[in-house]
Write a structure and sequence with these properties.
- It comes from Brevibacterium sandarakinum.
- Keywords: DNA-binding, Transcription, Transcription regulation.
- The protein is mostly helical.
- The protein has helices spanning 2-20, 27-34, 38-44, 48-73, 80-89, 98-105, 112-134, 140-161, 165-180, 193-201.
- The chain has 10 helices and no strands.
- Helix 4 packs parallel to helix 7 (112-134) and helix 8 runs antiparallel to helix 9.
Length: 222
């Protein structure tokens, strides 16, 4: 029963905090939605902030496990990350990124809640670098940070436009990043040797000899 109470609290916290915000939901609301008594709550958590931190830890583990699995199903290609997250954003319950939302409310970088949310973003960035490294991308760490900006931008845009078109745009930019890393054919600057060769190999115009007719001689076409 104790484990069930903890799980009910975490489930209620995940749903309420995501849909309404961390600060907007009080302890009484959590207890009401979870069906857990106050005494039972304090047996599991020292307070609401500790519940928020535990909820983020659980969601971080669930999200990253899901992302790896879904990208694997889509071919384990780096660009598949954009397709996977776009699929998740198509849900009618989508309200943006829970970690971005939390950091927007808990702005102190030293706060344990903010720290956990930031750590999640760092872990996803590391996963992007892992995918890019496997694909032999150059400067994988730098590119992963850039792609994280694209992903977060697409998530935020999708949350207020209520569509996932931003992910296609982000993926297009990411694809261009990969294309830019493809080796380009070397460009040979002209050193003039070709022109000189052409001049040496050119056929001279035939010399025109002007003949003067001897008096009394006529020229006929043969």
């Amino acid at each position: 029963m104790a484990v069930q109470a903890r799980q009910r609290l975490l489930a209620a916290a995940g749903e309420l905090f995501y849909s309404e915000g961390v600060r907007a939901v009080g302890l009484e609301r959590l207890l009401e939605e979870s069906g857990v008594g106050r005494a039972s709550f304090y047996r599991h958590f020292a307070g609401k902030d500790e519940l928020v931190a535990a909820m983020l830890d659980d969601y971080d583990a669930e999200y990253r496990t899901w992302l790896r699995a879904r990208v694997g199903e889509l071919g384990h290609e780096p660009l598949a990350v954009f397709d996977a997250v776009a699929e998740r954003a198509e849900s009618t319950a989508f309200r943006g990124c829970a970690f971005i939302n939390t950091m927007a409310e808990i702005t102190d970088p030293a706060d344990p809640i903010h720290t956990r949310a930031a750590a999640h973003k760092a872990a996803v960035t590391d996963y992007l670098a892992e995918l890019l490294t496997s694909a032999d991308a150059k400067s994988a760490d730098r590119l992963a940070r850039r792609w994280m900006l694209l992903l977060d931008g697409a998530v935020v845009t999708a949350s207020y436009l209520k569509n996932v078109h931003a992910f296609a745009e982000a993926k297009s930019i990411a694809r261009a990043d990969l294309a830019a890393q493809s080796p380009k054919p070397p460009h040979h600057a002209s050193d003039g040797t070709g022109d000189r060769s052409r001049r040496r190999g050119a056929v001279s115009a035939p010399e025109v000899h002007t003949c003067r007719a001897t008096p009394g001689t006529s020229f006929k076409s043969e």
